[in-house]
Amino acid sequence: MQRDDFHKLFKSTGPVVLPVIHVLDTPRTVRNVREVIGAGAAGCFLINHDFEPESFLPIIRDVRAAYPSLWMGVNFLSVTGKVAFPMLSKLEREGITIDAYWADDARIDEHGENLEATEIAKIQKDSGWDGLYFGGTCFKKQREIEPALYNDAARHACHFMDVVTTSGVATGHEADLGKIDTFRDAIGDRALALASGITPENAANYGDVDCFMVATGINEPGNFYDIDPARLDALMQVTRTLGQGEKS
Question: Among 123, 134, 144, 227, which has the minimal tally of Cβ within 10 Å of its Cβ?
């Protein structure tokens, strides 16, 4: 997906903020979604850190029922698109629209083989699900890739996903700016998302990123699950400023 098209989709000139909600149950998730909407964020991702995907599905259904028009993506933790795309297709057939899927590991081979990524692409096509695919590339907690090969990995990733998605070395750790520069050079005008380490304090350093997928940087201190409205508001203000800068 071209980055201009991505920004037009969300009607945003600066980085698009998509808070990531670590779900535990429906009431707590709905409460956090209210904070996302109240801050004027474009949407959110839900992720299941504490239980298997099958237990996640009822919460997804409940949140969609509560907010039919919410832009909502999901991450089924610890599985790839091989498992996720059929689940997304099943939800779609039930009338549960999921706008995006984020995989921590899109199974990109920096050397260009990409047999598994190709298989996942076929499964996605066969599933009939047509939301946006955010694919983790050189991503935290996955197979370690030499920095010298980041360019190759990012370049290959463009063939298999809508939004190339990377991270710092771990949850809450900001990404090395050199890594982001390498990704941008490799993917050109394709959309780029960053899914770790963004905070209101450092977000201005990442103005060349198109999407901030953020959790710990906007959560209450020491709280893995609940958004701090003041921190989310502060991040939103930074991204609006970055967007105004692009106009000038």
Answer: 144
Per-residue confidence (pLDDT) for residue 75, from 0 to 100: 97
How many C-beta atoms lie closer than 10 Å to residue 213's C-beta?
25
Say how far apart CA 4 and CA 166 lie, in whole Å: 19
Domain ranges of the chain: 3-247
pLDDT digits (tens, 9 = 90+) for 74-85: 999 989 999 999
Give the distance between the most distant pair of CA atoms in the chain: 48
Is-contact 17 44, C-beta < 8 A?
A: no
**Distance (Å, rounded) from C-alpha 1 to C-alpha 133?**
10
- Residue whose tokens read 């990524």: 117
CB count, 10 Å around CB of 46?
Answer: 24
**What digits encode the pLDDT tens for the residues 51-71?**
999 999 999 999 999 999 999
CATH superfamily of the 3-247 domain: Aldolase class I (3.20.20.70)
